[in-house]
């Protein structure tokens, strides 16, 4: 089922709030190259799943540890920003491997194109002889 308008608004507010915290308040180098992809809220707004990607050479483990370390602080700050909510959602940070999967598929397609082009070249050169 599609998210409600309220879920979408709260998800956007959480995304903006976490983005600001990552940029301005948290000085953790493990989170320096983290990009938030999307926030998905449960229907009762009690759980927010935050999907992120990592650019650069940071390891997923270090980033996950940093989110575990700062999770309570982040949730507290989000609670201050979203005072209209009765319950501040539990925050779950999940690595979004969609971009990795997309890169893997692009590599497969590029390899297939190269193989096809090489095969056509070899067939063309054998026809010329």
Pick out the low-confidence regions. none
Strand content: 15-25%
Order of helices and strands: HEEHEH
Order of strands across the widest beta sheet?
1-2-3
**Average pLDDT over all residues:** 84
Give me the secondary-structure category. Answer: alpha+beta
CATH class value of the largest domain = Alpha Beta
Span between termini: 62 Å
Q: How would you characterize the largest beta sheet?
A: 3 strands, mixed
Named at the architecture level, the CATH assignment of the largest domain is: 2-Layer Sandwich
Tell me, briefly, the overall form.
elongated
Features:
3 helices, elongated, GMP Synthetase, Chain A, domain 3, 17% strand, alpha+beta
Q: Could you characterize what this model shows?
A:
With 129 residues, this protein is an alpha+beta fold. It folds into two domains: 92 residues, GMP Synthetase, Chain A, domain 3 (2-Layer Sandwich); 32 residues. 57% of the residues lie in helices and 17% in strands. It has a three-stranded mixed beta sheet with strand order 1-2-3, covered by helices on one side. Helix 2 links the parallel strand 2 and strand 3. Helix 1 packs across helix 2. The termini are far apart.
Strand-helix topology:
Layout lengths: L4 H21 L8 E8 L5 E8 L5 H22 L8 E6 L2 H31 L1
Parallel strand pairs: 2-3
Antiparallel strand pairs: 1-2
Helix pairs in contact: 1-2
In short:
This protein is an alpha+beta fold and 129 residues long. It is 57% helix and 17% strand.
